Amino acid sequence: GMGALFFPLLSLWANLLLFFCALGVLRKAEVRLTRFHWYLLGGVYLAALVYAFIQVNSHTFVYVWDYINYLLLQYDAEAAFGSGVGAGLWHLYTSLGEDYTSFIALFTEFPFCLTDHTGDSYVLSQMVSVFPTLLLLLGGLVVKTGQLIGVKNESGYFLVGLTLTVVFPYLRMAAALGQPDWFGLIFAFMILLLTLDYRFDRLEPGRCAAIFFATEALILTRRWYLYFLVGYFFTYAVLVVLSCRGLPRRARNRRLRNLVLFGAGSAAAMCLLLWPIVRHILLYNYSSHYAVYNTGGLALELYSQFFRLSPLYLFLMGWGLWAARKKKQAFLPALALGQLAVSLVLFTRVQNMGSHQTLLLIPGYFLLMLGGTAALADSLNRRRALQLGFWAFTVLFYLSVRLSPLTTIALPGFILDSLDMEFTRLDAMIYDRTDLAQIRQLADWIDQNCAEGEFAYMIPHSLPYNPDLFLNCDLPNRPLENKLCFGFGILGTQPFPTELFEAKYVLTALPFPWCFEVSNVSETLDTQFWAMQEQYFTYETSFDMGNGTVFYVYRRTTPTDLNEVQRYLDAFAEEDALFPELYSEVIWGWCAENGLI
For residues 42 and 299, which has the higher predicted lDDT (pLDDT)? Predict the structure, then answer.
């Protein structure tokens, strides 16, 4: 229908508008790109296209959990527009209060609509919808930072700075796994370009409006970018206030007044425009519900980030800090370090970072890296071969990093594999699946043996094996959408799966797949299932996955009774004490609905 055609065209216009907004931001920030800059940006873009194509086609990855969320949002948005333009626009608008909004779907629909709608094609389509504008702004940020530092070797600095930031693994990690969270960096870089040398001596309405709308867009991209915003604006405001020292009284008062006016006005406008989001943030206790992700707090996070930057980027940052101290340039390093410190402290009060959440630290990281790049470029007349060797080695080393769901240490695949730890073996298995034929065989069996209205429940809920794997093994086809339940594995966010009581089949595996997630609730569920399966189930069939794991299918023969319910409740007594709304309330509610009480 009309809506199905309207959505891709809307997406194309949204992308073009965003690109022109980026050009406007560069003009406002007084960044002039020369022919040399444009040629280099074009060359890097083409190289990135080839690299992305090779990267996606050189592994077998099944998109699960966080790595499928946006693709499903894209399918949903397409379906909404398929039933009419009004329905589609309403769908986009009403999603804005959700934890995962459809905001990114507006931009990724073109060129995704022209592809075969698989997870891999979604990743590749971001190279057209997200990367051009992101690369343009990154190029602008490199130039702007060079201006502020006063770099002398401008062309050498731009070449090295652009390439070293583009190959940073955590910039590409989420994008390569179907999480287009890097889209938010477009707005983060806009904010940096508009603020780095702006001190509020004059209230510029155009600049202030651009900062405000970039901030709103960033919040709509991913909720956790708020940690970047709080860290950055807090540090920025403190540094602007400190910069008033030594100014004449009138100039000082004007600067402070403009800063307060902008801050207060922006806060009020945000509450007005994004009230559903603000309300959700204020009312939802993220730290208690996400406690399971907080596996080591700030100490572990600093340790993880140290490894994410080691060893080459840390060297670059250290060189930049040393050069800034020598030149007595405190503003940029102070801004970057302040943003990183505040964001890290606040974020780790809720949870530790996955590879994709490291994106909120990238603006601070890149400012520090570019400081080192400027020092490197300006000293190229000394030990030239050594320095160019460092640059080339860094680019090649980080281009060969394995971009996998479990990557905590950014290293090339062959190094990770040689470490021979359970964690890295699992990492390789998830990144490049060798059991796709077996996964599809089991998925087909469920599809054929569950009639309309019947469904199966799968107990394993870890990265090696989980329901999503079987649901998404043949995208865009999802024949098991109503035949296989989502599953249960994370304390604090996922309710007890009462579907277990209603499922025609229950599937589990031996040995039970190792779960990197610390709450082990799926393992508790599995233990309880085995203790009672003879009473309520009969063995149906099994599937050997070819890697040591065997799936067993059991068919329910005796309907659920209060004895079975009570034994599950007893098994989860500790979890129920923490989250009764996810355990006993859900279970007793199900019993009441089904006439057991």
Answer: 42
- Please give the span between the terminal C-alpha atoms of the chain, in angstroms, as a whole number: 49
Q: How many CB atoms lie within 10 A of CB 482?
A: 12
**Cα 552 to the center of its chain, rounded Å:** 34
Overall residue count recorded for the chain in this entry: 597
Average pLDDT in the chain: 90
Nearest to 165 by CA among 386, 375, 311, 369: 369
Round the CA-based radius of gyration of the chain to a whole number and report it: 26
The alpha carbon dihedral of 224, 226, 230, 233 has a sign of: positive
pLDDT in tens, 266-314: 878 777 776 666 666 555 555 555 555 556 678 888 888 888 887 889 9
Which residues does 327 contact at the CB level (< 8 Å), separation at least 6?
149, 150
- Are the CB atoms for 545 and 574 separated by under 8 Å? no
pTM: 0.92
Token digits for 259? Answer: 């800063």
Q: Identify the burial level of 82 via C-beta atoms within 10 angstroms of its C-beta, where 0-12 means exposed, 13-18 middle and 19 or more buried.
A: middle
Show the tokens assigned to 188. 């983060």
Can you list the positions of beta strands (E) in 201-303?
none
Report DSSP state, residue 452: T
Strand partners, 542: 552
Q: With helix as H, strand as E and coil as C, how does 491-511 read?
A: CCCCCCCCHHHHCCEEEEEEC
Residue 50: both structure tokens together: 């080839």
Q: What is the pLDDT of residues 224-250, one digit of tens each?
A: 898 899 899 999 999 999 988 888 989
Q: Which residue's entry shows tokens 């979890």?
A: 575
Using one digit for the tens of pLDDT, what is the confidence trace for 456-506? 999 999 888 999 999 999 999 999 999 999 888 888 888 999 999 999 999
Question: What percentage of the chain has pLDDT greater than the value 70?
Answer: 95
Phi, psi of 99 (to 5 degrees): -65, -40
Give residue 391's identity as a one-letter amino acid code.
Answer: W
Phi, psi of 508 (to 5 degrees): -140, 175
Cα separations in angstroms, 180 against 22, 31, 70:
18, 27, 8
CB 403 within 8 A of CB 169: yes
> Quick check: 507 and 536 in contact, CB under 8 A?
no
Cα 135 from Cα 122, distance rounded (Å): 19
Output phi, psi for 106, to 5 deg.
-60, -35
Q: What angle do CA 259, 265, 271 make, to 5 degrees?
A: 135
